[in-house]
Design a protein that fits this description.
It contains 14 helices and 17 strands. It binds pyridoxal-5'-phosphate. The site of pyridoxal-5'-phosphate has 14 residues, from α5.
């Protein structure tokens, strides 16, 4: 089937919840994607921060094939080897004592919401149920996580949402303090906002939020679904801030492209959770966990993290040069392999399209931010190529 036929099928049979780029992607290799017409694209989207190792990593493929041959699914009625081993890896590399596995980012946030509620109810009774999220946040699109994603465009058609969700201003500690009271159960924050425009938390804000939560005995949840697992050049995006949360959510890159989410918790939270409190039929799928063991081993290696920091400085230099060349670029933000170019236009869509035409895939983070999320294994020559294409796209603006 050619691209036109696939698009026609999709138009007729797939529910239209996505605005799509008009490419039918057929395969990937390294950091390059190929469409059905044989065109090659340098991929600075990575399936939205998922394909951290690029495409076709032989070790990930082998782990998936071997586990698929051995055991694809069995339910959490039974113990499985990959689940237990992956949990150990995540706990030993983080602040956490226990892990709950799910299938996506939004599910990892839903689990965090339930665990926080259970903790609060166990310690304080039924009143302490409210959450504080922050302006610009993105935590997912199911009813609980959507309530913590304060955007009218996403929320309004689906009201009413989970009650008791309040919204502070990102990087404004006073705004959060004003919302905290005896009913607050947890605050949820991305140490670096991805969908919201690539905004890192100010150190004083994240540290202050941590202290504020301690003072009020409110749980602190870090959503590292996008910024975690090496993307910022440290294993956890919160590492350079010197504070740790009570709960952390992970997903996107963890399964090397297979769906898996994880909710990491401290013993204080874990101690309030009992069998039956939460579950999922597909949760901790053995194939996804086996893939994640390999992915996590690679993403957490000192060499990989050093590489991400190196390419981070290289991207920063390249984008800095573009910024001095084009007045339309008002700010460049990011770290490691997550970057946002703030552009003084109504919509960066045409820039994304222009890059795509020249063979570079990028994406938006809000109307005015062009976002770059290359695989973490990207090399300098790919970055040179990407900067050249961006240069070309901006010169046409
Ligand atoms: C993408 C994302 C989610 C939601 O993950 P899904 O797998 O799409 O449900 C949650 N939080 C953050 C920070 C994200 O970037």
């Amino acid at each position: 089937m050619d691209a036109a036929e696939i698009k026609a099928l999709d138009a007729q049979y797939v529910l239209h919840t996505y605005g799509r780029v008009p490419l039918v992607i057929e395969r990937g290799e390294g950091v390059t994607l190929y469409d059905t017409d044989g065109n090659a694209y340098l991929d600075f989207v990575s399936g939205i921060a998922v394909n951290a190792l690029g495409y076709g990593d032989p070790d990930v493929i082998r782990a998936i094939a071997e586990q698929a041959g051995r055991l694809m699914h069995v339910s959490n009625l039974y113990y499985t080897i990959p689940q237990a081993r992956l949990a150990k890896m995540l706990v030993e590399a983080s602040f956490a004592d226990k892990v709950y596995f799910s299938n996506s980012g939004t599910e990892s946030v839903e689990a965090a919401i339930k665990f926080a509620r259970k903790w609060a109810r166990t310690r304080y009774g039924a009143h302490k149920t409210e959450f504080i999220s922050l302006s610009g946040a993105f935590h997912g699109r199911t009813m609980g996580s959507l309530a913590l994603t304060p955007r009218p465009h996403y929320q309004d058609p689906f009201l009413p949402l989970m009650p008791g969700a309040k919204v502070g201003v990102y990087n404004d500690l006073d705004s959060v303090e004003a919302l905290l009271d005896d009913n607050t159960c947890a605050c949820i924050v991305e140490p670096l906002q991805g969908e919201g425009g690539v905004h890192p938390a100010d150190p004083a804000f994240l540290q202050g939020l941590h202290d504020l939560c301690r003072q009020h005995d409110v749980l602190l949840i870090f959503d590292e679904v996008q910024c975690g697992l090496g993307r910022t050049g440290t294993l956890w995006a919160h590492e350079p801030y010197g504070v740790t949360p009570d709960i952390m959510t992970l997903a996107k890159p963890l399964g090397g492209g297979l769906p898996i989410g994880a909710t990491l918790v401290t013993e204080a939270v874990a101690g309030t959770i009992e069998p039956g409190d939460h579950a999922g039929t597909f949760a901790a799928n053995p194939v996804a966990c086996a893939a994640a063991e390999v992915v996590f081993g690679k993403l957490s290696s000192p060499e990989m993290l050093e590489h991400v920091r190196m390419i981070g400085s290289y991207i920063q230099e390249g984008l800095g040069d573009l910024q001095s060349k084009y007045d339309a670029i008002t700010e460049v933000r990011g770290r490691g392999a997550i970057w946002g170019i703030e552009v003084d236009v109504d919509d960066v869509g045409p820039l994304v399209d222009a890059c795509c035409e020249e063979g570079l895939l990028t994406l938006k983070a809000g109307a005015q931010v062009l976002r770059l999320l290359p695989p973490l294994v990207v090399q300098r020559q790919h970055i040179d190529q990407a900067i050249d294409i961006l240069d070309e796209a901006f010169s046409r603006e």
